[in-house]
Amino acid sequence: QVQLVESGGGLVQAGGSLTLTCAASGTIFSIESMGWYRQAPGKQRDLVASITSRGTTTYADSVKGRFTISRDNAKNTVYLQMSSLKAEDTANYYCNGDFRSSINSWTRPAWGPGTQVTVSS
Prior knowledge:
7-stranded mixed β-sheet, elongated
């Protein structure tokens, strides 16, 4: 019903920058919030940043001041601008959120494939 596809990952040098894109498609009436998550091998999937329909943003302490989340409502797309990247930022990055598929129905989509970010030290 709602599909999520992440893109933009790659290999970067420490201190470098990268921008990730999350495109949502399908039956979308509205989006309440969207967030970026990351998971490194052997670790939990943690929330990195989120943005609400009102534009309120939240960041994990580990990325505060370095990452910026933004959205393009017309395109149902969310971005994550990353700078001053560190080796510990290496992970598979995913997006997800809370969607309305109709005026009466909420849905949280299945996880997409994610996009790998690797930061060399």
